[in-house]
Amino acid sequence: MLLRRGLLVTRGPLLSLASNWTPQRPRAARTSVSSSMADPSPAASKKVKMAICQLLVTADKEENIKCARKAIEDAAKQGSSIVVLPEMWNCPYSNDSFPTYAEEVPSPGPDSPVAPATSTSPSVSMMADVSRQCGVTLVGGSIPECSNGKLYNTCCVFGSRGSLLGKHRKTHLFDIDIPGKIRFMESDTLTAGDKLTVVDTDVGRLGIGICYDIRFPEMALLYAKAGVQIIVYPGAFNTTTGPAHWEVVQRARAVDCQLFVVTCSPARQEGAGYQAWGHSTAVGPFGEVLATCGHEQATVFVELDLAQVERRRENMPFMRQRRADLYSLTGEAAKP
Ligand SMILES: O=C(O)CCC(=O)C(=O)O
């Protein structure tokens, strides 16, 4: 895609965003639905209770798994139907750690094999087990995945019966160099994923991105086009780009796409090689920050009314107002 004299010029097969951009309802959504007489909007409320677990990640993998399990169980006890974990929650965020902490991840599917607790994929089996036991949808942050001699930064999404519904491999690797501030080259160890990931769950239709993926609005727009209601970005911004961009990119994606944006960071670990920004957040489809936190370990509880996605799009129909004669977007977020 080229930006030339104010024109967005695309190459390859076009996927026009100008017409027929009606959000699709998720298949088999089992969101609790209640209508409110006081609400003049035709869209009934569809409320989803979410917990965003900003975990303190240590070098002790077993401890990280125990701590994540407890946070999920506590969130379920408090009535959450969907729980989100941070990027790289089972290992320190460093190129040295990724190969050592990596696990195999099975292919998604309703009957995906759930690895027993003694397997070589203890993080994956814990997530499958606890989501089934607690009956929650789980967006499992990310962990390093090993597959055919390559490493990926991978997010697993589990349904409330413990099956692996989807996995997203981070598509934009975090390779940046801000002299005197931060240099990180994920591509030294990781390979980029090659697809966008839309997952239908009990609570709604999710689009998944990981951290640096949030900086690419085209990806979020394709998710909106695919009928996604919530984009979840497990992410670990840092103390340079975090204060500058973390909140603004979330609000920008939410406003551009008129959907919910949720981020989940690790807590900041004093003395760690990588200083995470924290501030896990949920943003509504009008760009409003609904809930957030600081940089310490915390669980953010938030209720998302998914009916707001339709309401905002009725109020301000950007989707129908796009100018396909002037610009369009290539690519596809495959529907599940
Ligand atoms: O985009 C940024 O500033 C940070 C991204 C990042 O930390 C990551 O992708 O892991």
Automatic annotation (TrEMBL):
Region annotation Disordered: where it falls in the sequence: 22-41, 102-122
GO biological process terms on file: asparagine metabolic process; glutamine metabolic process; oxaloacetate metabolic process
GO cellular component: mitochondrion
Amino acid composition bias (Low complexity), ranges on this chain: 32-41
Boundaries of every CN hydrolase domain copy: 48-306
InterPro entries (UniProt xref): C-N_Hydrolase, C-N_Hydrolase_sf, Nit1/2_C-N_Hydrolase, UPF0012_CS
GO molecular function, one term: omega-amidase activity
Pfam family, one: CN_hydrolase
Superkingdom to which the source organism belongs: Eukaryota
Keywords: Hydrolase
Similarity field: Belongs to the carbon-nitrogen hydrolase superfamily. NIT1/NIT2 family.
Cited PANTHER family: NITRILASE-RELATED, OMEGA-AMIDASE NIT2
Protein name: CN hydrolase domain-containing protein
Phylogenetic lineage: Eukaryota, Viridiplantae, Chlorophyta, core chlorophytes, Ulvophyceae
